[in-house]
Design goal:
The protein has 205 residues and is an alpha/beta fold. Helix content is 18%, strand content 30%. The strands form 2 sheets. Strands 1, 3, 5, 7, 8 and 10 form a 6-stranded parallel β-sheet that branches. A 5-stranded parallel β-sheet has the order 2-4-6-11-9, with no helix packed on it.
Length: 205
């Protein structure tokens, strides 16, 4: 099945002829696996950058397979573990709250057409297969909350505001940027809040 990953963490069909020349699609699939692994915390930002650099310049299937040999199996074809990322996801809604959290699959572009709906987009555990995310907003009322993890940069310069405001509480990445989020469109009334995950409260024994 296209897009499946073998138990060794390699794209199916790549392990049969390791000296076969890699295609653009082979390199892209390997890059997707690496980004998912980084999102799971299995690779640091530095490791992700190093492996992506090798993946994008790899000449053979063997070189690509070596980059994912120490990673668990992943499916990009919708077997319930990780679904295939859509190019565009559009959400149109009124009055009801919108939430995307946990291991949801982030598209390349997210379009929000909403009236009086509170929105929470939590990217901290999401499956991110691309380095960029554009969120196009046509939103009236209520608040939009964007929760981001380390390595994420959020750009709100192109977002038009009417009786609304943006508050960005997310910390600037200490290392390389792994995801660039741009907010475009128009937000009327309410606010846009960008923040990191809340710290868990631990009681002293």
């Amino acid at each position: 099945m296209p897009g499946e990953i073998s138990p060794a963490g390699k794209p199916s069909g790549l392990g049969t002829h390791p000296e076969l020349r890699a295609s653009h699609a082979d390199r892209d699939r390997t890059a997707d696996i690496l980004r998912v692994a980084a999102g799971d915390g299995r690779l640091t930002s530095d490791e992700l950058d190093q492996r992506l650099e090798v993946a994008l310049s790899a000449r053979t299937v063997r070189e690509l397979a070596e980059l994912t040999a120490d990673l668990p199996s992943v499916s990009l074809s919708g077997d319930g573990v990780v679904a295939e990322a859509k190019d565009v996801l559009r959400i149109e809604q009124k009055w009801s709250a919108v939430k995307r959290e946990g291991r949801w699959v982030v598209p390349r572009r997210l379009e929000l057409d909403l009236e009086w709906c509170s929105v929470t987009l939590d990217l901290t555990q999401a499956v991110i297969t691309r380095g960029t995310l554009e969120i196009d907003i046509d939103m009236r009322g209520k608040n939009l909350t964007l929760i981001v993890g380390p390595g994420t940069v959020v750009d709100t310069d192109a977002l038009m505001l009417e009786h609304s405001r943006v508050k960005n509480r997310a910390q600037a990445p200490a290392g390389p940027t792994t995801l660039h989020v741009s907010l475009t469109g128009e937000k009327r009334f309410g606010r846009v809040l960008v923040r990191g995950p809340r710290k868990s409260l631990r009681r002293n024994p």
